[in-house]
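INFO batch 0412 | record 1 of 1 | parsing
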Amino acid sequence: MTKQELLERIKGKLIISCQALETEPLYDPERTLMDRMALAAKEAGSPMIRTCGVRDILAIKEKTGLPVIGLIKIQYEGFDRYITPTAKEVEELRKAGAEVIAIDCTDQKRGDGSRIEDFMREMREKYPDQIFMADISTFEEGVRAEKLGFDLVSTTMSGYTPQSAQSAGPDYEIVRRLSETLSIPVIGEGKVHAPEEASFMLRQGAYAVVVGGAITRPLEIAARFQKAVTQKRASVEEILEKMILAAEGNQHDIEHFLKVHAYARTIGMLEGLDQETRFILETAAVIHDIAVPFCRARYGSADGMLQEKESEPLVRDFLKGTGLSEDETERIIYLVCHHHTIDPVAGIDHRILLEADFLVNAVEGHYQEEQIRHAKERVFRTKTGLTLLEALFQ
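INFO prediction complete | emitting tokens
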């Protein structure tokens, strides 16, 4: 299979990663189980398999006939890099028939004192026809990888190195930036937990998407279910219902927070927030004006600063019995208690809540052009938020 044929095969597709480390239940020292996992992936439509180790590469290719992205994870003393770190692993992967060889191209330390530039130059000279994929963690590493002669770049390591963005979900921003900058294919990979996240990767410009743990690691999948069952956390819809009931028929207040929630959810989805951050954001959007009735009764005003002052005990009491963790509760309290504070903005969830609330307030309050312009300059930063603002106030 030529490089062009392989690239055409995977374009716009989901590549499934089938790996079992020695510490995981699906690892068997006597025989691999990953060939069966890969067969299931093939039947589901995966055009290629990402896998680790010579044994699994050979078994998967024999069982499925699919091309593979091969790597070897090994920790050498003095090396922070562990994905195909030396020439020895590259040679083993070539002999096993890996169509693509993945190499750690991050800025992490190499124990032998060599630079990735020197290592890749040697590999490219020795194996000019081999397809190499750079596993990177930052935008700068991706740009460098293309200059070093890699054929593909994958965002595998984003969130797993000290220099990269830390998030519970996929790094859509690095995928978007690299896709706009590089002339080689960018593979979206890392912390993709849901189908819509994989799809969003492609819409951000990814050439293809790799998903592993969310599909092929039963321990990881089961742990997520167990956490949800144990925590018994209320859904956003249940919290929304509770807030509607608490409004006691005040249709204006109900319609207001429904609209703020709708905008917050829309912006959060289109900006690619991970599921946990979206949950925090949407919950905060639903209850952001929880102090309004109290402030009206006590002060005769629903001024934003008064709301921020009085919100904390009301939010804490409202969230009792919803199954939210302490960290989730504290973050929601922070957002509600700062939903009129535009400086500083503490996180993307805070930013989106500010934007969503302004969109609704501006329509309801018939804001003037100067107020819109001021908010555009000082409040709005997300691409989606700005698009909505301009659509509403052309």
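INFO post-check: The radius of gyration is 25 Å.
INFO record closed
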